[in-house]
Specification:
518 residues, alpha/beta, 2-enoyl-CoA Hydratase, Chain A, domain 1, 3 domains, 8-stranded mixed β-sheet, 7-stranded mixed β-sheet, 20 helices, 17 strands, 17% strand
Length: 518
């Protein structure tokens, strides 16, 4: 072919038109809103020069309905392709708000479906960068059909490949369900929003004035709804967070998480752990300090930090290997389990089990949160989710009881009889059907009622209960835990225990799937 001929000229003209579409003016338009362009986001995520775009020149199927000039542009408002993040293959779609508001029509949807299918075929993670006005009204049911096809693929990929959604603009109506079906949701403050119905509809139907931020901003979804697992001040940091999160995952459910040497000594004795739990059982402490001392230095990456902070979930490395951590937080609501914390921990446990990430549980829990509100909203059913999640999980599972382990809460926090592989306790542990005060009030009700000084007598009975019933050595001697350990040796014990479980295999009963108490 003559490279100066008409054929090649047409090819170059097409490239020029494509460049104009992604001109500095278009990028500046996004910047004026405090946002990055769809392609800038991809460049930040992927290793340099590794991104390969697919379907860059497809055109819209949007009909001319007389509702206004259709934006004649390539790509139909979404950039798709694959590349490398820290050397590993990842698929992506990034919605371009500059093209028809990033709205989803039939072609736009087919592009997203294409990368979903490819990611599932090859067993690679997929990331969705959401910045869209929602369903394209001009295309009617074709747009809705596109969304439902994407949702179906989200479900088919669930537990097979990691799926991450990053909300970097609006996500409204049906657009929110795909992120909700993925494993983790990131949001950027002030520029990203998620809601089923927007402020205008709320005003019209309920006569309530509400802003975008109040209705579905990043803070709302991180603190109140729990929809967002991570929020960042800006897009750049959100995308860096995505890269860090991916480092803990395997590419699919058939692989193990990647090993990364963090340089922390494996045989370290950490004497500071002996003094972290207060002698006074009513005094709070920060369980994150325990986590930081046990794991490889500076590797803890907390998940859903602002939602249900009475339980801590996150990823870390232990001797270079990825683990998932679930820990009761005594400094928030004394570490009790309520509806939100049960939901948060259950979802996290199930993700770790899906992708072969061993689980470490740090337990200090006085029980489930009592009261009318919790009972009427179904704490029984929601608490059972955590029980189901731990029982179902077949990855290596280790529990360390730091202090309190009472009643049903002891049962659901990966106790031995629901499949805990190794259950250790510190000397500060208290393991019993209920707390000493409550138990004494029931067991010695008559004596306390008739006593001259009931408070003094109750203290004596409570001390005796702690020594003779709740202390961890009784549970150890009866085989309900494996060992009472020196807190300073916790890191060494955990490394050895997880190493012994590397070839763990569990035969599951033949079934389609279990019926988790939703």
């Amino acid at each position: 072919m003559d490279i100066n001929g008409k054929i090649y000229k047409n090819f170059l003209n097409r490239i020029d038109r494509f460049k104009i579409q992604n001109s500095p003016e278009k990028i500046k338009k996004q910047h004026s809103k405090g946002k990055l362009h769809a392609r800038e986001r991809i460049d930040l995520l992927f290793d340099k020069d590794s991104f390969e775009e697919l379907d860059a020149f497809v055109t819209s199927a949007t009909p001319d309905t007389g509702l206004g000039k259709i934006d004649e542009a390539f790509g139909d408002g979404v950039v798709i392709g694959h590349g490398r993040i820290n050397g590993r293959l990842v698929y992506i779609f990034s919605q371009d708000f500059n093209v028809m508001g990033g709205s989803l029509g039939a072609v736009h949807a087919k592009k997203i479906m294409k990368v979903q299918d490819l990611a599932l075929k090859v067993g690679a993670p997929i990331i969705g960068l959401i910045d869209s006005g929602g369903a394209r009204i001009q295309e009617g049911v074709a747009s809705l059909s596109g969304y439902t096809s994407i949702f179906h693929r989200n479900v088919q990929s669930s537990g097979v490949i990691p799926q991450i959604s990053v909300i970097l603009g609006p996500a409204a109506g049906g657009a929110v369900y795909s992120p909700a079906l993925t494993d983790f949701v990131f949001m950027a403050k002030k520029t990203s929003y998620m809601f089923i119905t927007g402020p205008n509809v709320v005003k019209e139907v309920l006569n309530e004035e509400v802003s975008f931020e109040e209705l579905g901003g990043a803070e709302i979804h991180a603190r109140k709804s729990g929809v967002a697992n991570f929020i960042y001040e800006d897009e750049e940091n959100a995308l860096l967070g995505v890269k860090k999160l991916l480092s803990f995952f395997p590419s699919n459910n058939l692989e193990n998480p990647p090993y990364i040497d963090s340089g922390t000594k494996s045989d370290e004795v950490i004497e500071k752990l002996r003094t972290l739990v207060p002698d006074d059982p009513y005094k709070p402490y920060d369980v994150k300090k325990v986590i930081e001392l046990i794991i490889d230095q500076n590797t803890f990456f907390e998940v859903s930090e602002l939602f249900a902070p009475n339980i801590v979930t996150g990823f870390a490395r232990l001797n270079g290997k990825a683990i998932g951590i679930v820990a009761n937080q005594p400094k928030v609501l004394a570490g009790v389990i309520d509806i939100n914390s049960a939901l948060k921990a259950s979802r996290f446990v199930r993700f770790c089990d899906s992708f072969n990430i061993p689980l470490l549980t740090l337990e200090d829990v006085p029980g489930f949160l009592p009261g009318l509100d919790q009972e009427h909203r179904g704490i029984i059913k929601h608490g059972a989710k955590l029980l189901f999640a731990y029982s179902e999980a077949t990855v290596p599972k280790i529990t360390v009881i730091l202090r309190k382990a009472y009643g049903g809460a002891f049962c659901v926090m990966n106790s031995k009889n629901i499949g805990g592989d190794y259950n250790f306790a510190w000397p500060t542990a208290e393991i019993a059907v209920m707390g000493p005060e409550g138990a004494v009030s029931i067991l010695h009700k008559k004596e306390l009622h008739n006593a001259d000084d009931p408070n003094k007598l109750k203290k004596e009975y409570t001390s005796k209960y702690r020594q003779e019933i709740a202390n961890p050595y009784i549970a150890d001697e009866k085989g309900y835990i494996d060992e009472v350990i020196d807190p300073a040796d916790t890191r060494k014990k955990l490394i050895t225990a997880f190493e012994s479980l590397e070839n763990k295999h569990v035969e599951q009963p033949a079934r389609k799937h279990g019926n988790i108490p939703l």
